[in-house]
Amino acid sequence: MQSGHNIDFEKASFKDFETIPHYDIFQRAKAFEQFTGFMEDRQQMNFRFVTDGCGPEVLVRSLFAPDPKLCISLVSNDYLNFTHHPKVIDAAVKGIQRYGTGAGASPLIGGHHEYHVALENKLSAFFGRTQGSSIVFTTGYTANSATLLALLKKEDCAIVDRAVHASVYEGLPGTNIKKFPHNSLVHLERALEEARSRYATRLVIVDGVYSQDGDLGLLDRILELTKAYGGYLMVDDAHGIGVVGENGRGCAELFGVLDKVDILSGTLSKAFGHIGGFIIAKPEIINFLRYQSRQQVFSSTSSPASMGLLKAIDLIDEEPHWRTTLAENVDYYQKGLRDLGLDIGTTASPIVPVKIGDPHKTADAARLLFEAGVYANCIVYPGVARKDARIRTSLMATHTREQLDKVLNAFEFVDKKLKITRR
User: Fold this and answer.
1) What pLDDT is attached to residue 118?
2) Structural domain range at position 186
């Protein structure tokens, strides 16, 4: 299907509508509206909304049904379900009762309150750093983008794993970029060698847990290479912190480099169950960001409800059984999918992709899963490569075995309908 342009809706992705030759912004938006309508008619649009918050089961409204549907949720990064932990909720409520509902200003002109100070001190201690080693941002996305925009300039170079999060790339337009294939140490070393004498700063940027495949960055070996060539290492461990590692400190702890990573970025919206992001680094870097990051200067910061985070961080140590239960769920679920012959790649985390390849078949799989009471995300290009479409699933500590069995049965049903196994 086409309408006044050369885009074939049967083969199109969202990225095809970013630029259409000779179309202005309103014409592009109209063409995109026609495309999403085409996808809705085929029941392949994935946009739905939850009516009752995060949880292992949620009520979901879709475009195609008048009433909410009770589904097992595989779309949330609330890995420990701390969004509903009574102690976290109680701390957040008390924060609002004491400080009100908003911060009132950007951090640099009066919006930095004592609960922000307490949170930053708590984060520094959580990672075994001195006070002054952390800074909080409004979102995890902004923690990456704003930090990199402030730190890296035209005389510097970012050496980036191609699979890092989009927020990293958002922060790099003002500097030089070298990309290396995912987890390829050979290509990383080549990039480091080429950059060594050309740039003032060589900052290697990788993820701890990668958000689409759920696999891990090879942090110990990456750090060793980086230091051998005089570079610095930044790790975005949004999906690992609170979940991975013996004490929940993330992939840097797992690989034994927690005290050696130069810049550690994370989010407060996943394992910690709220919203926000943070950077852990030497105090001089944190001080620089506090006065040079445009987000710190011009954007309001987190609300008093973030007082709940002070309790959530404590709970990582006080109630480790949540991490243990999550790990048991992950092992059970991954084994079940592999036993069905499904391709889940090299995941080593609660993020478990079921790789299908064909984007339209993947969209059909998401629809069939939803009909079976399973809410999961259809991920296609440009979120992943054109031929690497998948159903992305995320597990929680509060999923029951009965719920996971229902999900596995649903995938078995989908496979019989669509032949999605890759034996």
Assistant:
1) 97
2) 85-318
